Amino acid sequence: MHEVRWSSYLALGDSFTEGLWDVLDDDGSPSVELAAWAAVNSQTPQAHSFHLRGWADLLAGHLAQARGAQGDGGLRYANLAVRGWQLGQIIDEQVPQALAMKPDLVSLVGGGNDILRPAVDIDTVADRLEEAVATLRGAGIDVLLATGIDAKGSTLISTTRSKVGIFNSHIWSMARRHGAMVLDVWGMRSLRDSRMWSSDRIHLLADGHRRVAQAALVALGLEPEDHAWDDVETPLTPLGTRQRLTADAEWLREHAGPWAARRLRRAVPHDLRRAKQPDWLELDAR
Length: 286
Known about the structure:
This protein has ten helices and eight strands. By secondary structure, the protein is of the alpha/beta class.
């Protein structure tokens, strides 16, 4: 394992990197109740006012602590992620900001919102991502990419599994070509547990984000703080056919249907279109 050589970390991406639905109470502890409500009301303006943490915030905290233990001080951290953005938006708007801010380390994670669209061209999306990786690496910035999540076992989301698999292959190849690092979300067995996910089946809850942050440390060549980060929880009792069909119908009614309707109308509230943390934060080593 290596020492933390980065003094600044900038996170780029969409809702995954913004931290939906790792919702914190006022005391800074994860709030299961707020997360459950927010997952159902995720497109309301009020939802954006919640304090969202997520794996990138957790990773930044771990890096700051490690730097302190090395005697190197804290870490500068910013997060430009915006929920709902496709990869083209991330590259067009966030990557230029990253180049201007000149971080030591960038996490660039996107493409999930593209893959959810039936007409997506995976090769074109991957080509755009590789151009961005090459640009960042050419500027001397270390880059952390991430594979897409394996939706095996999810009755409906698993229809995107083959597309995600092709996209992941592109990610591993471009990482090798350009010297980037890869957070292997696809390989995380623990994320196949439905208890890691909000009711929308797309966004992680607090424990899922915590595990991804540990996986990110491993991807960076660092020691995880929790060596059981990918251990599988006690298995759930499988749902019966009737229960599964009822749950799927509820998900279609409460989440998938409204999501598709919003995309057809291009109706995403304007006040959700803002970066999570656009300015540098100075994180100390505590």
